[in-house]
Every structure is written in structure tokens, then in C-alpha cells.
């Protein structure tokens, strides 16, 4: 995989494609162009399906922060997810982190260790929409943007704050570009 990454990077940053090896010019660049065309076609089809109502958007009841990009791993997405989750938890908004659990769940275990003691929940699974639904069902949720969630009705401050720690106040997607493709499939 590292070799593929290096070749793609070399082609992307080449100032003059004429100086690339004949293999790269005659095979790899046309292959990447073809793959790019297929990706463009797939995205156009997906947008059309949404536009004609064959696919539906699903809104979550809480704010969603998506951390992701189209590049391979090693770009700091999971540490950014941890930073955002820590910030939210420390601000009184318990986050639910949704991750696919690559590499046998190493990222999820690392997040659990680093966020230990904070009201963050970590949902692992390929179908992150279903994982989110099960966490909302299990723990409940509140929208931190609504005025009623910030007001004390008849509960003691400590009791209300403890109840809110159990509920989910935001969702953070680890590798959010992947979930966009999952939800479209």
C-alpha cells in the first residue's frame, strides 16, 4: 500500500508528466483518470437518486461533526476526533464517537483509554447509522442547541447534570467521508 501511495503522490505532484516513467505515463495515469471518471459518475448518480427522492437524507436529533478526507490513513483524523470529543465532553456535551473499527478496533481502544473518565461513548461498527440508532435508544439524547436542554425544570442541578452525562449531545464521525459512501449504498 505504501508503494501505491508513493506512486500516486509522485504523479500528483509531478510538475511535468513527460518526465515520469513510461509505465506511469502509459498505464497508471490513464487508470487513475478512468477511476476518477467512475467516481464522478457514481457521485452524479448518487446526487440524482437524492434529488428524485429514491434515497432519503436522515437527520440526527443532535449536532454531527464529521472528521474525514479522501486520503489514506495517517493524516491525524482519529487524534482530531479525540480532541473534538474531549472538548465537547469538557464543555458538558457528551459525545458519541462513531468509528468503523479498523485494524481490529485499535483506534476505538485508544480512544477509550484517552477519554477514560469523560462522558464519551464510542460506537464501533461498519454500519455506523445503525450503531448510532442503538446508542440513541440505549442512552437517549438531547440537543444542546435547544433552550429547553439548558434550563432546569424541576430537577436538582446535580441530578440533571448526571442525567445529561448519560444522554448523547453530539456525534463525532471518525473518517466521515467513509460514512457518506456507506449511507449512499
TrEMBL record:
One of its GO terms (cellular component) is membrane. One of its GO terms (molecular function) is lipid-A 4'-kinase activity. Its EC number is 2.7.1.130. GO terms for biological process: lipid A biosynthetic process. It is an enzyme of class 2 (transferase). This is tetraacyldisaccharide 4'-kinase. Pfam families: LpxK. It comes from Castanea mollissima (Chinese chestnut). The chain crosses the membrane at residues 27-45. Pathway: Glycolipid biosynthesis; lipid IV(A) biosynthesis; lipid IV(A) from (3R)-3-hydroxytetradecanoyl-[acyl-carrier-protein] and UDP-N-acetyl-alpha-D-glucosamine: step 6/6. Keywords: ATP-binding, Kinase, Lipid A biosynthesis, Lipid biosynthesis, Lipid metabolism, Membrane, Nucleotide-binding, Transferase, Transmembrane, Transmembrane helix.
